[in-house]
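quick one before i forget lol
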Amino acid sequence: MTTENISDAVKFAYWVPNVSGGLVTSDIEQRTGWDFEYNKRLARTAENNGFEYALSQVRYMASYGAEYQHESTSFSLALLGATERLKVIAAVHPGLWHPAVLAKLGATADHLSNGRFAINVVSGWFAGEFRALGEPWLEHDERYRRSAEFLEVIRKIWTEDNVEYAGDFYRIRDFTLKPKPLNTPERPNPELFQGGNSTAARNNGGRYADWYFSNGKDFDGVTEQIEDLRAVARAHDREVKFGLNGFIIARDTEAEAHETLREIIAKANKPAVEGFRDAVQQAGRSTSDGRGMWADSTFDDLVQYNDGFRTRLIGTPEQVAERIVAYKKLGVDLILGGFLHFQEEIEYFGSRVLPLVRELEAAENLAVS
């Protein structure tokens, strides 16, 4: 396989808990808050413990254990104002945003944060939100066609003047954005992330995004996606970076880590997990080839609603570090981490796991130099 995007060091992001209920749909104790004060402290902790990115979630109404939600773009801007180095990615839904309006917001956010704003384009899985808001719910591949246009329009507006665009979903006529976002050789526009697992998502990621986010996968699942994604990118003379979701349970002993996982699943909120499964698996299975997000997820997988357990970042610091570096060797550029108790576990990760990752990377780089 081609690994043209492998860098010397894997990057780390964390899920911003801006919705209630934590990152697992379980009645286990989660010492994680969804309020701004908690998240402000957490963001500062994360940037001081080796995390370069944070991803704000997007939900507009109560669903499957997330009774309360803070809106992602405004929350992201507040976190940017509370930090110095952290890059914050706001998840957004095409169909609920006009791309030019979001481009304007993004340009302002980029100036206010000195170039640390990014967006993650989420094509949508929760039909109930769209219906409650009176917006049409498109079929799976149509949602990704709309997202493709959304990504195209935003990049054009951020990088060109007098933009003209005539698509099936968006029309832009002689539009010039001033000021544009900050532009550097390393980053000509705010980074664009595209999430998904399906063929349509891979095509969008390879053709239009800077980053592709995958749900949790084992080594074989990651390899298969990366091969597809980068084949699409190469066909369009592009390179795309790959981010992988993983729920991280690092403990002093392997037994303790696996006991934590066992307890999370044993205390799963069964009605909420089953409701979520019913909502999302129709989306993944509705694709033409049946390989969309959550199409083959088990009940246990869905207790962490982005399949984070499947990445198997569970064990001692040494075991978790070794598995992270193994994913990096396959072509993973970024690990998007979820945690049970965010504040204390991000500190633990920064002091106990991350130094081992860097040692292993340094050894690998020496071996090939």
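fyi The radius of gyration is 20 Å.
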